[in-house]
């Protein structure tokens, strides 16, 4: 039941996609595992898992990787009152100090005229259509340039998120990932030595993931209590 997925080294191998959601003190509050090679579809299920396990405080901020910057995820967060912080891939390059090679959401929107402004040129509303992958997009057209520009169906939500991520708070929340979730993966892989699943089948690897998450949490709770008693 595993699927061919591309790893960080750039080549494909049989894999599962694991998801971890952690608190600020690196306690795993929810996990998930699936056959989907794209993280974008895992944000909503993971948020539902979190809410089943714990009660979020009113001022909870949720920071996620740019891989989850799908417009539907941002729309879901707004509808559910989740204070989400997720950069586009282009913003992530900038925030991580990498050379900027992408230009996601590099346009403005004129709400009064329902027009997209890109590189100083205006694009008029043309229509809405559904792609083969089931995603709805909105098309705008510039007659003078004879060019069409497609934007996500919930592009307004993406533009609001883009503006949010340009604030000092947005950058700060996103930066917390380096000291929250990333060390958890490091602990599981390096310290606990869990780098691959040993069992076959989705249900069995879910059990494996649960066990390693329990081991991490017990270790983290013990260390937190020991630090408090000192």
State the secondary-structure class.
alpha+beta
Output the number of helix runs: 7
Please state the overall shape, judged from the principal axes of the Cα atoms. Answer: globular
Q: Could you spell the SSE succession in H and E letters?
A: EEEEHEHEHEEEEEHHHH
What does this structure look like?
The chain is α+β, with helices and mostly antiparallel strands. It is built from seven helices and eleven strands. It has a five-stranded antiparallel beta sheet, covered by helices on one side. The longest helix has 28 residues. It is globular, with a radius of gyration of 20 Å.
Which structural traits does this protein have?
37% helix, 230 residues, 11 strands, alpha+beta, 5-stranded antiparallel beta sheet, two-stranded antiparallel sheet
Question: How would you concisely characterize the structure shown here?
Answer:
It contains 7 helices and 11 strands. The protein is α+β, with helices and mostly antiparallel strands and 230 residues long.
Write the layout of secondary structure elements.
Layout: E1 3-6, E2 12-15, E3 17-22, E4 28-34, H1 43-53, E5 61-63, H2 71-80, E6 83-85, H3 89-95, E7 108-110, E8 115-118, E9 121-130, E10 136-142, E11 147-152, H4 155-165, H5 168-175, H6 181-191, H7 202-229
Parallel strand pairs: 5-6
Antiparallel strand pairs: 1-2, 3-4, 7-8, 8-9, 9-10, 10-11
């Amino acid at each position: 039941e595993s699927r061919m997925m591309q790893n960080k080294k750039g080549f494909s191998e049989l894999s599962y996609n694991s998801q971890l959601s952690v608190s600020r003190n690196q306690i795993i509050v929810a996990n998930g595992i699936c056959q989907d090679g794209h993280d974008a579809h895992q944000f909503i299920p993971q948020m539902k898992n979190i809410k089943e396990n714990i009660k979020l405080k009113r001022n909870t901020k949720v920071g996620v990787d740019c891989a989850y910057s799908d417009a539907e995820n941002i729309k879901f967060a707004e509808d559910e009152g989740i204070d989400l912080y997720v950069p586009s891939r282009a913003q992530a390059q900038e925030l991580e100090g990498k050379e900027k090679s992408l230009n996601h959401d590099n346009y403005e929107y004129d709400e009064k005229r329902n027009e997209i402004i890109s590189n100083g040129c205006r694009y008029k509303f043309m229509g809405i259509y559904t792609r083969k992958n089931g995603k709805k997009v909105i098309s705008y057209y510039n007659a003078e340039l004879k060019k069409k520009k497609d934007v996500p169906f919930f592009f307004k939500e993406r533009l609001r998120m883009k503006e949010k991520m340009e604030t000092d708070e947005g950058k700060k929340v996103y930066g917390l990932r380096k000291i929250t979730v990333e060390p958890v993966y490091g602990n599981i892989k390096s310290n606990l030595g869990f780098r691959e699943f040993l069992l076959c089948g989705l249900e069995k690897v879910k059990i494996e993931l649960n066990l390693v998450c329990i081991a991490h949490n017990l270790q983290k709770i013990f260390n937190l209590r020991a630090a408090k008693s000192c």
